Amino acid sequence: MSDRIEFNWVIIAQRIEEAKAILRDIGMPSAQQNERSALTLLALLDLQPQKVWRNANNPLMGITPIMEFIAQYYGKQYKPNTRETIRRQTVHQFVEAGIVIVNPDRPSRPPNSPKTVYQIEPNLLLLFRSYGIDRWSNQLEIYLTSVETLRQRYARERQIQRIPVTLAPGLTLSLSPGGQNILIEQIINEFCPRFTPGSQLLYVGDAEEKWGYFDRKALAALGVTIEAHGKMPDILVHDRQRNWLIIIEAVTSHGPVNAKRRNELQQLFAHSTAGLVFVTAFLQRRDLARYLGEIAWETEVWVADSPTHLIHFDGERFLGPT
User: Fold this and answer.
1) Distance (Å, whole) CA 136 – CA 138
2) Which of 129, 216, 273, 298 is the most exposed place for a label (fewest CB within 10 A)?
3) Burial code of 171-205, b = ≥16 C-beta within 10 A, e = fewer?
4) 9-160 maps to which CATH number?
């Protein structure tokens, strides 16, 4: 952070009110016309209080740099736990409105990546630069007549980048791109047909959507009722022929089925009428090497780059409930 800045609170208040007015004029909901959203917009435009609107820019910024910008130039110190509030209640809405683009430098980057960045859409940057001058009204009118088309275009681009996964004949799930979901696709397309043929997918998590797919009724028929997403594994599969509930963790950003996680999952599915089978999945063997010492006994390991093999960690039987 640079040398300490003397805040001119009059100019700061003026810039915040101008940003609020812009958000109102472009049709953002009232929940996104507050100070937090105004400051986030100013940060994404790299608009320090002393700058005029025509000097706005659109750098790539993550949530933490946005918060640091706000603190440095506008004197507003958000607590670290406010990070998710800014992302979920301001930036997410900016993205949905087509004001902000996610990861324009690398669209395949997973949305929950710590490297995720945001950027003001270039056409909107031109509009914002005209604020306070004569052509603002005309530019705003042009934007408002095209905004739906703009939103549709970005929604279509995000959809194209998603990963289609066939869960059953006629049933396709569209996962958000990158990261863990690449491995989840491999598990569904490679692991399940080989090791659980004819099984039924009950749950598939999605890094972006959280509950990607969930057959609550089928899981409840096995005696299990779950409400909290955070406790769920990445994939649940019911091998109906052998009556096994196969619990799979996809290791990219989170760890494997270690002793602690195995106990958590056993408690979560304690009432299951199907036998529990625990599987940790990795994309590559070098990923497995990082976690080799953590993997719990009586569990299985599958590696996507060697899809025809399983690694069995002790126990009385190979690929079966203990």
Assistant:
1) 6
2) 273
3) eebebbbbbbbbbbbbbbeebbeebbeebebbbbb
4) 1.10.10.1820
Instruction: Specify the DSSP class assigned to residue 74.
Output: H
Instruction: Name the helix (H) or strand (E) containing 303.
Output: strand 299-303
pLDDT in tens, 232-273: 888 898 998 899 999 999 887 578 999 999 999 999 999 999
Residue 322's pLDDT band, with cuts at 50, 70 and 90, is low
Going by C-beta distance under 8 Å and a sequence separation of 6 or more, which residues neighbour residue 275?
242, 243, 244, 245, 320, 321
| Same fold flag, 9-160 and 163-313 | no
For the domain with range 163-313, which CATH number is right: 3.40.1350.80, 3.30.930.10, 3.30.420.40, 3.10.20.580?
Answer: 3.40.1350.80
Could you tell me where the DSSP H helices lie in the chain? Answer: 9-25, 35-44, 63-74, 83-86, 92-96, 122-129, 136-160, 180-186, 192-195, 216-221, 259-268, 285-291
Break the chain into its structural domains and give their ranges: 9-160, 163-313
The pLDDT of 177-198, averaged and rounded, is: 78
Tell me how crowded residue 207 is: count the other CB atoms within 10 A of its CB.
22
Q: Which residue has the higher pLDDT, 185 or 22?
A: 22
CB atoms within 10 A of CB 250: 29
Distance from C-alpha of 254 to C-alpha of 265, rounded to nearest angstrom: 15
Length, in residues, of the chain: 322
**Residue 230 to residues 114, 206, 210, 257, Cα–Cα distance (Å):** 19, 12, 9, 15
**What is the gyration radius of the CA atoms in the chain, in angstroms?**
24
Residue 144, both tokens: 């408002």
Structure token pair of residue 25 = 């004029």
- The pTM assigned to this predicted structure is 0.51
Asked whether the beta carbons of 188 and 205 are under 8 A apart, the reply is: no
